[in-house]
User: Fold this.
Amino acid sequence: MSSVRLGSLAVSLLLLLASARAQLPQLPDQWFQNLTPDADGQAISFCVDLKDPGHVVDAAIAEAIAAVLLVDSTMHVVDSIFDNLDFDPLFFLLSDSCAVHMGFRLYSDTYPEWLAITRSMYEGRFVIVTANPDWRTFSDIPPGAPVGVVQGTQGDVRFILSNGALPAEQRLRRLPVGHPTVAFDALSRGTVQALLVWEPWWWWLSQSRPELAELHVIEAAHISEPYVGVGGVLLAHRDFVRESVDAAVGALIESGTIQEILDGFGYPARAR
Assistant:
């Protein structure tokens, strides 16, 4: 497939996602709305997702935000990472359970118009990891080598575009390998020889799978840079909450508190 067709495919995918998210979801007729308040003067409610690798970091940052604002933090823990094509459950959560949902990569052109995003709380990156000691830079990977990707991510889009721009005989073999929890199995089995993944997933899974700590990052600036901001999302009309959270995050970054939280967990990200 030519680089032009690959580029068109990536752009078309992003446009399809944007179109699918344009309309405000409708609450069911039987829904008894318990809308989370814009601000009650005493607490800010946050959601964190157990299926997100950064949830422990995000919860700590949420508590620090509340401390700066001199309010209590109410934490709502969910276990339902969202399908990229279905944001309705997120709308219900933000209507009923929490004002701010933490841990979202801040792609400004990705989320529906009824969502607002906070400023970046920290930045993470996509990386290519391998166990091959001879592969240290992207150019060390021989043409045709199978590289696993967690498909549909920004890292995958970068890989498609950069790999497609190479002459056919120099391209790597892209193999979609599913969710990170199973993608690393493909790497361990040798189905793929390297894996492109959101770095926090590698950090999180390494805690229960020590063998993953033996992997190393292949230098690939065109995949890893620019870093991607991570923050919170909230309903677009909650301007006061967003402005308050943004001000608190700014103070926490300036004081070094967020970087201290990241470092305390050994989390692969930077406050920025």
Remarks:
- The domain at 126-224 is CATH 3.40.190.10 (D-Maltodextrin-Binding Protein; domain 2).
- Residues 65 and 245 are 7 Å apart (CA to CA).
